[in-house]
TrEMBL record:
Subcellular location: Cell membrane; Membrane
Record-given protein name: ATP synthase subunit a
Superkingdom as given in the UniProt entry: Bacteria
Keywords: ATP synthesis, Cell membrane, CF(0), Hydrogen ion transport, Ion transport, Membrane, Transmembrane, Transmembrane helix, Transport
Alphabetical list of InterPro entries matching this protein: ATP_synth_F0_asu, ATP_synth_F0_asu_AS, ATP_synth_F0_asu_bact/mt, F0_ATP_A_sf
PROSITE patterns assigned to the protein according to its UniProt record, in alphabetical order: ATPASE_A (PS00449)
GO terms for MF: proton-transporting ATP synthase activity, rotational mechanism
Membrane-spanning parts: 37-56, 92-117, 123-142, 163-183, 189-212, 219-236, 242-260
Main location: membrane
Bilayer topology: Multi-pass membrane protein
Function, in words: Key component of the proton channel; it plays a direct role in the translocation of protons across the membrane.
Amino acid sequence: MVNVNVPVADEFQAPGVGLFDFPPLWDGAPYWLTKPVLFAVVGVMLVCGLAWAAFARPKLVPRGLQNAGEYAYEFVRDQIARPFLGRDAERWMPLLLSMFVLILLWNLLGVVPLVQFPINSHIAFPVIFALVVYVLKIYLGIRHQGLGGYFKNMMFPPGLPKPLAIALFAPLELLYTFVTAPFTHAVRLFANMFAGHLLLAFFSAAGFWFLIVHPTVPGSVVGVLSVAMAVALTGLEIFIQFLQAFLFTMLAAMFIGGALHPEH
C-alpha cells in the first residue's frame, strides 16, 4: 500500500522535457538569448578558429590541426560529396565540410562536462539547417533545369506511364519534395539528439539519487546499474552524434546533387 504521507522531495523525480527549457541568460535579456544560443555561437566561433588554425598556413607535410583538418576534409569529400556530386564535389566542399563539422560539434556538446547539452536537441537549429538546404535545392533545380523542366523531371520521370504519373507518382513526389523531405531532414537530427539527451539525463539522475541523495542497500544496486547504463549510453550517444552529422550532411549532398543532375 502506498504511503500518501511521504513528501515529494523524498521520491525520485525523473527528468522531463523541462531539461530543454532555458531562461534568458540574465534578467532583462531577450527571451531567445539562452544557454543553447550562447553555446551555438561559441561552436561557430570554435569551428572558424579551428579552420583558421588548420589551414591558414598549410605545410607540405601536415601536422597537428592541419593533419586533423585534412582527415576531416577527405572524409567528407570521399564519403559524402563525391558519391552524390561527382565532378561538382570540390565546389560544394566548403558548405558540406562546414555543415558536417558544426553539426558534429554541436552534437558533441551533449557529452562535454559543464555544457552537457546537444544544441541540435532544440528543433530551431536543425530546422534552420534543413531550410538552407531546402531553399538551395529548389534554387539550383530551377536554375539548372528551368522552372518547367524542374517540375517535369520531378513529377514525370522517363519511362513512367503518364496516367500512373499523374494519378500517383506526381502528387507523392510533390508532397515529398515540398513537405516530407525538409521535415524529416530536420526532425531526424532533432529527435535523435532529444531522445539521447533525455536518456542520459534519466540514468545519470537515477544514479545520483540512489547513490548520493537517498542511499539505501536495495537502491544502491539500482544506482550502480544506472551509472553503468549512463556510461554505456554515453559511448553509444557519441557514435549516434557522429552518425547523425554524417547522415544530415549526406542528405544535403544528395539533395544538391539531385538538383544539379536530375538524370541521376
